[in-house]
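User: Structure tokens for this complex, please. No commentary.
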Amino acid sequence: MTRHILAPNEILVLEPILEKRVFKNTIEIIYEGHIPHVGYLLIQGEAFLGKKNKFKQVIRPGTTIGARELLNGHPHPSTAKIFSGSEVYILCRSSLMELINNSSTNPVIQPILNKILHSELV
Amino acid sequence: MQRKIPAPRVCQDCPSQAKGIFCGLNDPDLKSLSDHKVENTYKKGQTLFVEGNPSFGIYCVSKGNIKISKLGENGKESIIRIATDGDVIGHRSLFTEDYYSISATAIQDTNVCFVDKKYILKLIQEKPTVASGLISKLARDLGASENKVASFSQKNVREKLAELLLVLKQSHGVQEKDLTKLDIKLTREEMASLIGTATETLIRILSEFKDEDLIHQENKILYIKNEPALLEMANIIY
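Assistant:
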């Protein structure tokens, strides 16, 4: 499994484009088998991935969740649960399309976009 | 094995399209909306969002029922309303705050579409029919809230239950011969929460209504037998 982690300098590039949000309550942000509403780039805190109520994989800051499945319209292979206090950048479809459009003129964005969209499924 | 991906349903084919805020859009705009939205089926008990968490867009109920609730200081859940086919949820957070002030949970398997905030705000700016649809929805919500406040302060539990049954008839009523079936699976706890009373009180008054031939019950499904009497009791005009 390949799950790319974005470096702090790469996250900084996304700052003007993406909205930052804090989760005040622990919640399932993506249910197994659902197409994610938005993708998430975890900046601070912790999330878990799991199947059938068994959470197996810890997601660390710098990791993206759900962006690839959102763009491809594919069901997410696992449930993602985020813990209260975690901070994320929101990768909604509009923002992802904006990133894709910007990547043709901004060479810095292309490799970051590749990392976001080519994290393999769990 | 490759997971089979069902073809996404387009907004033009949505059974609730005519009831929603997007009903004024023409076919090309609905096609663009269809390409942008995400549709999922929520199982009973799954949450769309939780009070206090950030909002990312709006939800449109295609088919099913969603419980809209709020937690009190004592941790007790109050059900504000039930969102059903064609209803929009989370629209207030688009304009007010970045965080949800309510929670939304499926009370049965429910198809829900999601549209992200950036797209919907752009749509509101570009398409006056969507803007007026949302304003109209906000006005109806406000009217319903005012009615509920008045009802809570002025009516006794019998009157409030009569009103709830009539509201459910309007949103979920299915005519079956002389009776109207309330085609929604609500627990007695959920019904009690909707009118702000104890479950025991609700069960007692439901029983009184059955004795008075106002309603009929088969298994857990309620039927309205005497609507004029309920209307008179609820003291509402609609």
